[in-house]
Structures are given as C-alpha cells and as structure tokens.
Amino acid sequence: MIYMDHSATSPVDIEVFNAMKPYFVESYGNASTLYSLGREARRAMESSREKVASIIGANTDEIIFTSGGTESDNIAIKGTAYRFKRRGNHIITSNIEHPAVDETCKYLEKNGFEVTYLPVEKDGIVNSSDLEDAITDKTILITVMHANNEIGTIQPISEIGEIARENKIYFHADAVQSVGKIPVNVEELNVDMLSLSAHKLYGPKGVGALYIKKGVRVEPIIHGGGHEKGIRPGTENVAGIVGLGKACEISENNLEEEAQYLTSMRDELIKRVLSEIDESYLNGHPTKRLPNNINFRFTGIEGESLVLHLDSKNIASSTGSACSSKKLEASHVLMALGLKEVQAHGSLRLTLGKENKVEDIDYVIESIKNAVDTLRKMSPLWCQAKV
Ligand SMILES: Cc1ncc(COP(=O)(O)O)c(C=O)c1O
After folding, report:
1. Distance CA 175, CA 169 (A)
2. Mind listing the pLDDT tens digit for each residue in 173-215?
C-alpha cells in the first residue's frame, strides 16, 4: 500500500508505540493516586506536557490534554462563548473550517450566538480586511484554522492574531494539520488558544491537546473530577498522552528535514501531473500550503471514482477530509474557493508522509494518468465537454 492520506490520519511511529507500551500493562497507575505506580504515571504525563509545550513554544502550565482535535476545538470555542456571553455573543470564523469548528459554531448559533463566516479568496486565504470589517463590539472570539485539512492552505495567523489583540478579542487557531509539519509558535502566531491532535503527527488516535495562554479563562464544557485544572476532567489517557509527547518530540527534532523532503516530493508530483494530464488543476494556494498537501482537480471525472481506482492500485488517497469523504455533497472548502459543484466533485487529495518514497512517485503518477484516462472515456461530462 502506498499511503497518501496522512491528513486523515498517520501511522503510529514505532518509537511512539514503544514509548507507549509500558503504560498499558506495567505502569498502569492512575496519575491522580499517591503511591509510586500513580506517581510514575504522573511523571510520564508531565514529561509529555513538556514535549507538547516545546513543539509549540508554550509553557507547560498552558497545555491541557484532551481526546483530540475535535474536543480541543469544542473546549476553546464553547468554553469562551459560555464564559464571556455577558460581554458579547458574536464569534468570527472562516467558511473553510473543519467540522470540529464549523459545527460547533453552528451549534452556538442555535443557542443565541451570532457567527460570521469569513469568505476566502480563490486560493483559500482569509482576507484580514474582511476580518476587520466583521468585528463588532459584541465580538468575543475569532477562530480561524492554521492550515486547511483539504487544500493545505496556511492562513496569516499572526496577522489575524494581531487584529484580535488590538480589539481585545480572544483568538483560537485549529492547528491540527500544521503542528509537526511547519513551525508553530504560539507567541509568534499571537494566539490565545491552539488545538492539536496526536494522530496527525504519527501519534495515536484519541488524544490531543489544547494550548490556553496563561490568564485566559474558559468555562469547562464537561464536568467531573479536577483533572487538567478542571477544564478537561476524566482519568487521563496516560499511554495516549505519552504517545502524543513522543510524537511531538520526534516531529520537533525532524521538522525542517522532513518538511524539505515532503515539499520536494509534493512539488514533483504537482509539476508532473499538471503538465502530463490535460485539464488538471491545483486547488488552493501554490506556495502558502502544507509541505505534504496536494489537491488536484480534473475536468470530467468524479473524485470518488478516482479514489476507488487508485485503491485498486494499492494507493490510498482521498477526495477531502476523512469526515466528508463518505458524504456525496461537494466539499464546502472547495465551494468556498468559488468552484462549481461539478468541479469540486472532480478533486483528489494526496497528503504525503515521511514513509512515502521518492521511488513511488512514478508509479503514483502513472496510476493517476491511467485512472483519469479510463474514467474520462466513460464520462458523459468529459465527452460533452469535448464535443
Ligand atoms: C483541521 C482539523 N481540525 C480538527 C480535526 C479533528 O481532530 P480529531 O480527529 O483529533 O478529533 C481534524 C481531523 O481531521 C482536522 O483536520
């Protein structure tokens, strides 16, 4: 299998797996207990907290462990909304967010909040003057993703953060796709809160973290024991947290080298597909994009058929985010770029990872070419376009 769907999830690094293993059957203590087994679990958790803090340039007491990106986004958004509802009821986000942010905002809209969904330019970037225009005296939160999960576009987060700060509005960034792929520093990005998730950076599924800047207060959205400062109560997933820490440590050490490796494979794939396949296009920004993200559009075919064709050639790819790839609606991200529905349906996402090999690129390109060719021969859309 040539796995090119790393934005959906990534394989667990063997070093991460080995680091986690003792915390299932040997050092299984509850990290809240007083005896040595519990203290050992607590120590492992605190060491992971340091590693997570380090990859994003935060302090350890600013890291809250969660069950992943979705939970981190929910705590940041609902937690701020509930805490500051007396100050205002307006939230600003973009119209290309992951459902973990988008659906949370829609939920709040049904519960008395007002949400502005900022449009993006045709290359997928939020315009900061649109943001400035959207701010009102009721705005309590801006939440904009760092890098998009479908088209890989990287937003001007530090600029957005400056605007938020000048206007005394809290700012949250979903950095689930960017942490481990590009440098992420919470100070430079001017964020108050930032979400990340282990399974996107060769860690386990079901564990993540939320950075909450010192002094920023959010209302808990679930209630229980006092774990994680009462912001995320529940017995800690020690093995998962150890895995997250190890994944962050490995990613931080290899960030630059890995980004260069992925960028060169990405650019080679883009250059060759665009030049060798008629009526093929790149969705998203040509350069302000994640080193591992490619999102093509091919006239006259459906992305889903292409994904299945490539699967029969042992290549794992996607049409968009893992969550929306089973729905047959056109991607809201691609529609936000101004594409027609039929164009949005002809898209293919390849997201590369460190275990992909340069030697496989030829095979992947040949397989895409053959699949596009075969599908176009059967496609009424393509035949009509060619008459
Ligand atoms: C940008 C973004 N945010 C949030 C999430 C949700 O993260 P998790 O799967 O850890 O809940 C994802 C997962 O695809 C994502 O890509």
Report:
1. 19
2. 999 999 999 999 999 999 999 999 999 999 999 999 999 999 9
The answer to whether the beta carbons of residues 334 and 320 sit under 8 Å apart is: yes
The domain that contains 374 carries what CATH number? 3.90.1150.10
Residue 145 Cα: closest atom of ligand 1: 1
Structural domain boundaries enclosing 42: 14-251
| pLDDT per position as a tens digit, 277-309 | 999 999 999 999 999 999 999 999 999 999 999
Task: Report the alpha-carbon distance of residue 316 to residue 318 in Å, rounded.
Answer: 7
Q: How far apart are CA 226 and CA 215, in angstroms?
A: 18
Nearest one of 58, 76, 100, 54 to 244, comparing CA atoms: 54
Q: How far is CA 37 from the centre of its chain?
A: 35
91 belongs to a structural domain:
yes
Task: Please check whether residues 51 and 187 belong to one and the same domain.
Answer: yes
Residue 143: phi and psi, rounded to 5, are -130, 115
Which residues are known catalytic residues?
Answer: 323
145 lines ligand 1 (CB under 6 A): yes
Query: Does any domain span residue 4?
Result: no
Phi/psi for 84 (5° steps) reads: -110, 20
Q: How many domains does the chain have?
A: 2
Joined together, the tokens standing for residue 231 give 């912001």
266: CB partners within 8 A, 6+ apart: 291, 292, 293, 294, 352
- From the CB of 70, is ligand 1 less than 6 Å away? yes
- What is the CATH number for 163? 3.40.640.10
**Mutation choice for ligand 1 from 9, 10, 12, 70, CB with most ligand atoms inside 8 A:** 70
Q: How far apart are CA 215 and CA 3, in angstroms?
A: 42
